[in-house]
């Protein structure tokens, strides 16, 4: 005999599901309605929101803290069913960037997966040589960029000139098919998922 399951698990069920998924893969998740009202979140998502300070939970809504990121947050709430969206918050701030991957769970809700560059360990990055044909030195530079270092910090860290590092970055972007740091972060974050 078939048992009919409820169409929606309710807040407690949704939180339990997000918590279980987080325990399985170590990713922070939020479930929101299309207006940005928080439906459910795992504990890891709350920790990341508090640590990053790029998103805020105000009057039941999840919002971007700075105006520059508000447009990105709004676009992630509008992801169409069957589609995914990605954004990187905090690029204009002096903080670690926050990656958000979004997928619609139906016409009324969207699920976000959150991660910070600092929370991603190098071992979690894919093999950059196999994926993009990067040399070991190019891969190290991309890993450093992904971890939030500036080109000048990378040059100092590896005892290279800033010119050499910038040339490496340009070649890496060409090999990866990206045009900027934000595109690189989003591409690597989605590969690491």
Distinctive features:
193 residues; alpha+beta; Beta-Lactamase; Arc Repressor Mutant, subunit A; 2 domains; five-stranded antiparallel β-sheet; two-stranded antiparallel sheet; DNA-binding; HTH luxR-type domain-containing protein; transcription regulation; WH-like_DNA-bd_sf
What features would you describe in this structure?
With 193 residues, the chain is an alpha+beta fold. It has 8 helices and 7 strands. It has a 5-stranded antiparallel beta sheet, sandwiched between helices. Strands 3-4 form a two-stranded antiparallel ribbon. β1 and β2 form a beta hairpin. The N and C termini lie far apart (38 Å).
Give a brief description.
Residues 131-188 form the HTH luxR-type domain. With 193 residues, this protein is of the alpha+beta class.
What is the topological layout?
Blueprint: H1 10-25, E1 28-33, E2 38-41, H2 43-52, E3 55-58, E4 61-64, H3 67-77, E5 84-89, E6 98-104, E7 109-116, H4 128-132, H5 136-146, H6 151-157, H7 162-176, H8 181-192
Antiparallel strand pairs: 1-2, 1-7, 3-4, 5-6, 6-7
Helix pairs in contact: 5-7, 6-7
Organism: Alteraurantiacibacter aquimixticola
GO biological process, one term: regulation of DNA-templated transcription
GO molecular function: DNA binding
